[in-house]
Amino acid sequence: MTESQEAMPTLEGSLTSVPATILKLLNITPPTNIPQPIQPVVDLFASKGVDRIIINVLDSFGLFEITYYKPQFLISKANALVLLSTKNPYTLGMFHQMFFGGFDYEPNGFHLLRYIQENKKSSVFVGRQKDIKRYDGGTPSIAKSTDMATWIEAAKVINRHHLSILHWLDFEELYNKRKRTGINTPEELTQKLIKRTDKWILSQFKQLRSKSLMLVIGNHGRNKIDLNYNGKIAELRSASVPLAICLYKK
Known about the structure:
Helix content: 40-55%
Organism: Promethearchaeum syntrophicum
Mean pLDDT: 88
CATH class: Alpha Beta
Strand order of the largest sheet: 1-3-8-7-2-6-4-5
CATH architecture: 3-Layer(aba) Sandwich
Number of domains: 1
Order of helices and strands: HEHHEHHEHHEHEHEHHEHE
Oligomer: single chain
Largest sheet: 8 strands, mixed
Number of helices: 12
Low-confidence stretches: 1-6
Protein name: Type I phosphodiesterase / nucleotide pyrophosphatase
Radius of gyration: 17 Å
Distance between the termini: 24 Å
Strand content: 15-25%
InterPro entries: Alkaline_phosphatase_core_sf
């Protein structure tokens, strides 16, 4: 472990507090009917100035994958690692908490993306069509079905909006294939996918203008999947929690 890694703070917060945290960092006053922001994250980045936030959502990616596969860029350049506690760590549960601040549907009319638009800031949601239909709340969105298409679209949108949410799908597809076929995915294939995504996120980070905050948020995937790990690895995987990796572009 390098000195920079040792200095990287590990913070804790609730997934339901992510909406208020995003709003606070964008200098928007959160409504009082959603959970309070993760204050250590606000304290760490608000003073630097945040003009835009880019959220990369990775399915079936969490603390275990960071620890076991060690994606080089994410580990070496992260400013903070936030462990996100939640009663529902899966994809749709994560989106529900991220957009509504809880498990109710639009509590008292709150929807993160609409609230941002109402406060004269812009947003875009790039992801799977059925997720967009369920969660974009009528705000600007772009449907993409492959990671390559998402990566290309990211270059067009990340510097144009105050909040860009990009949902990457290949991790989930990898594990879904394993579930359908019953054949274990070779570990090197998972490693290759993580390495590729790490490089793509690095490329995306280089394109960002200054005063940008990137959050890489991982969850447990769309459904619970038995990955057939053994021994210590199985223990680590079962204890894995959703997380947010924070990277600030000066």
